[in-house]
């Protein structure tokens, strides 16, 4: 297998945007989705083992990395998780994968949640890292959660306020968010940090991340509420993992919230805070091997 950072980044047209991805490995297809404020490079430490057992597609979400960064739209619909999920189903279909597994972190896990609802026939099983359902997190917000996840409430403020401040020094913003978690920046390799910083400097990045969060606080909640009213549920196996030192498990009953909207849920805390693929890659790989079934 080719080393992660030596792989070329492919660009695939789908759903009116261009999605950037690295692809390698053999076996059943596995879609990997990153979170904020990173890129698909979050998977570099687990990539060698994953690609021994799966054909891995690590993609940048729209608005992030080297994928298209659409302008803001009324109602934030261009950055809804429904549109992001449509990007990913189109990407996988373009690569010849009608049905696949999903491993997703943070914002990417929110996209995966919507993907598995809107395109249930395509997702065989999914592992979600360090999130509870978006609707429940907003409705269950406490002072402690708001302090730990201040960016949820700052990024959704009207444009161009947050964008202007981020664009003044995007690397400072990125480092402050990532370094503000337990453990600081020690978990991130120099090569990965260089990639995250490069991506943060790209035109449109600040708009992309703000619109992602604005969508999650508006149109995405509308979609989630409507789906629940209609009895929408996840029917594939779901494995939820969270950081034992992180804010998600400290502020929410992660398994109970997922079990309320899914039929087959298991999970546990891992020895990390939030960026599990980089903080505790061996523990994550053990979980992936058991859940996806190559061990």
β-sheet strand percentage: 15-25%
Q: Which word captures the global form?
A: globular
Within the largest sheet, what's the order of strands? 1-2-4-3-5-6-7-8
Number of strands: 8
The major beta sheet can be summarized as:
8 strands, mixed
Average pLDDT rating: 97
Low-confidence stretches: none
Roughly how many Å is the radius of gyration?
Answer: 17 Å
Q: Quaternary state, please?
A: single chain
Number of helices: 15
Q: What fraction, in percent, of the residue positions are helical?
A: 40-55%
Describe the structure.
The protein has 295 residues and is of the alpha/beta class. Helix content is 44%, strand content 17%. It is built from 15 helices and eight strands. The chain has helices at 47-53, 81-94, 106-118, 134-139, 143-148, 150-154, 161-168, 170-179, 190-200, 205-216, 219-229, 247-251, 254-259, 276-279, 281-292, and strands at 10-14, 17-25, 29-33, 55-59, 100-105, 123-129, 238-243, 265-270. An eight-stranded mixed β-sheet has the order 1-2-4-3-5-6-7-8, with helices on both faces. Helix 2 (81-94) packs across helix 3 (106-118) and helix 7 packs across helix 8 (170-179).
Briefly characterize the structure:
By secondary structure, this protein is α/β, with parallel strands linked by helices. The protein has 15 helices and 8 strands. The protein has an 8-stranded mixed sheet with strand order 1-2-4-3-5-6-7-8, with helices on both faces.
């Amino acid at each position: 297998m080719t080393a992660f950072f030596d792989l070329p980044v492919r660009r695939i047209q789908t759903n009116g945007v261009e999605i950037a991805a690295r692809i390698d490995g053999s076996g059943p297809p596995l879609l990997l989705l990153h979170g904020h404020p990173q890129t698909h490079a979050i998977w570099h430490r687990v990539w060698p083992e994953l690609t021994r057992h799966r054909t891995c597609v690590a993609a940048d979400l729209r608005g992030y990395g080297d994928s298209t960064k659409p302008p803001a739209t009324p109602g934030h619909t261009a950055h809804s998780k429904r549109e992001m999920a449509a990007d990913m189903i189109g990407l996988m279909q373009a690569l010849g994968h009608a049905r696949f597994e999903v491993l997703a972190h943070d914002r990417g896990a929110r996209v995966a949640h919507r993907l598995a609802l809107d395109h249930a026939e395509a997702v065989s099983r999914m592992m979600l890292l360090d999130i509870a359902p978006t609707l429940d997190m907003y409705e269950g917000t406490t002072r402690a959660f708001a302090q730990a996840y201040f960016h949820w409430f700052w990024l959704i403020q009207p444009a161009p306020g947050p964008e202007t401040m981020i664009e003044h020094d995007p690397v400072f913003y990125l480092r402050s968010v990532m370094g503000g978690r337990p453990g600081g920046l020690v978990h991130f390799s120099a090569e990965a940090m260089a990639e995250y910083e490069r991506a943060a400097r790209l035109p449109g990045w600040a708009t992309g991340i703000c619109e992602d969060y604005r969508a999650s606080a508006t149109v995405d909640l509308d979609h989630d509420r409507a789906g629940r009213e209609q009895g929408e549920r996840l029917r594939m196996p779901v494995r939820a993992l969270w950081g034992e030192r992180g804010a998600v498990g400290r502020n929410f009953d992660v398994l109970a919230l997922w079990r309320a909207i899914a039929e087959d849920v298991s999970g546990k805390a891992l020895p990390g805070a939030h960026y599990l693929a980089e903080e505790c890659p061996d523990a994550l790989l053990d979980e992936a091997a058991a859940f996806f079934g190559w061990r």
